[in-house]
Design a protein that fits this description.
The longest helix is centred in the middle third of the chain and has 23 residues. By secondary structure, the protein is an alpha/beta fold. It is globular, with a radius of gyration of 22 Å.
């Protein structure tokens, strides 16, 4: 049996994701596809547009065979935490042959070079980076310019020496191509996947698939191709009130549409209002914010100084972000404060010798052979199918991390469920089966 792995958020699942699963099977010859998916909170620093069970069903309807949950400590972290946590799970399953990921630049030679480069970070690059940071650039902009300077410097040195480029191990990237490589979150994630595979000494083969949608940051779907970024769909849902269904449905696979809640707009609006109150309460009640993931002492001081002006989380984010503190960094930092995810939690997760556990969110009934394969070949990872069993099968440290998943999912349910709806406990939820 050949198994392909995909790391995803499916926030929400759309036609581009359906294309990726089909293309992954085509390129790799995979018999089964296993997904490691973020739970109820995602890497951009916010709650998911629908809960993890809805997105699991959509993924299974779209061709996935098994969906596992990425622990919240990793799913809400930076690209390095997100990629590292998911790759460790796939590697620990012991049966995944390849990792498929989408990116704007599928040139594997360039991606592998960047993975090596950022693992080593030559001293010349570090000097360029520090200089640009001192000039007031944001970290992403400074990194992009520092890489461009480094590549240009090496190319000039090779030209001066008179070496033949064809006989030299020159960098396979043109300095002018660095913006297209480093400005896309998908390219950045691709590099982090490769770095994580190397850190695991994994035999999993990376397979890059070129994205064909309108782009990660686009807020307008491409009606001609029928493809849309997840960001554009979220924008439609959150800004079109009752008309969201008419505008979003064409970009959702027909097989997955029935899983979409009809009251999605109302639930999302309710969740955002409740999150505003939760975050404000945590900011007011916490004495030491710098213990939370992504919160430095400098950012803590800025949060405390601006706290009297807090009205909503979005408005506060606009006040908080600066050149040194990018919007993405601040958004994740605020989410970690709201959810109680500390630097200690993240470090504990990283220090586990293998991925600590993998919770099964759903599977296709005809694909149970994949579960048998994992049970026979896994490398020490604990599979969780029943939450009630976690206390008996997890170590104390692993249980503490898993409890964080349960706690944050309960918060999500509390924020998103209408007042007259009974909250559903994670202890009473079973994996989705189709």
């Amino acid at each position: 049996m050949k198994v392909a792995g995909i790391i995803a958020e499916y926030n929400p699942f759309h036609n581009g994701h359906l294309y990726q699963i089909k293309k992954a099977r085509e390129l790799t010859g995979a018999d089964r596809v296993v997904i490691v998916m973020s739970g109820d909170f995602v890497q951009r620093g916010s709650a998911a547009i629908t809960d993890k069970y809805v997105r699991t069903r959509m993924a299974l309807e779209g061709g996935a065979d098994l969906v596992l949950e990425l622990p919240v400590v990793a799913s809400t972290g930076s690209a390095e935490y997100f990629a590292g946590g998911a790759v460790r799970i796939l590697n620990a399953l012991g049966c995944v042959d390849c990792l498929s990921f989408g990116c704007e630049n599928p040139d594997m030679e360039q991606l592998l070079y960047l993975a090596d480069f950022f693992d080593e970070e030559p001293s010349e690059y570090q000097s360029f980076l520090q200089r640009h940071m001192q000039e007031g650039m944001t970290f992403p902009a400074a990194r992009e310019q520092a890489l461009r300077d480094f590549i240009a410097q090496r190319a000039a040195a090779a030209q001066t020496s008179g070496r033949d480029p064809e006989d030299d191990d020159l960098i396979p990237i043109d300095p002018e191509d660095t913006p297209s490589l480093l400005r896309s979150p998908n390219n950045i994630l691709a590099v982090e996947y490769l770095r994580a595979l190397r850190r695991c000494s994994s035999s999993i083969e990376p397979v890059a698939i070129e994205r064909t949608d309108s782009g990660f940051r686009s807020v307008t779907p491409d009606s001609a191709s029928g493809l849309s970024s997840a960001n554009a769909l979220r924008h439609l849902i959150r800004n079109r009130s009752q008309s969201w269904q008419t505008e979003v449905i064409p970009y959702i696979p027909e097989s997955s549409r029935r899983a979409m809640p009809s009251d999605l707009w109302e639930r999302d609006s309710l969740e955002r209002r409740h999150y505003d109150f939760l975050l404000h309460y945590r900011l007011l009640s916490e004495c030491s914010l710098s213990r939370y993931l992504d919160v430095s002492m400098e950012l803590e001081k800025r949060i405390q100084s601006l706290l009297p002006m807090y009205r909503t989380s979005d408005r506060f984010l606009d006040l908080l972000k600066t050149r040194p503190f990018t919007e993405a960094r601040c958004r994740r930092a605020l989410l970690h404060i709201a959810l109680g995810i500390t630097k200690e939690d993240a470090e504990t997760f990283r220090q586990e010798s293998t991925a600590p556990y993998a919770r099964i969110l759903g599977f296709r009934k005809e694909s149970t052979d994949l579960l048998h394969e994992i049970k026979q070949n896994n490398r020490g990872i604990t599979l969780i199918s029943k939450v009630a069993d976690a206390g008996q099968i997890l170590s104390r440290t692993q249980k503490r991390l898993f409890d964080k998943d349960l706690y944050t999912s309960s918060l999500y349910e509390l924020m998103a469920a209408p007042q007259d709806e009974v909250m559903r406990s994670e202890y009473h939820r079973s994996p989705v089966k189709i």
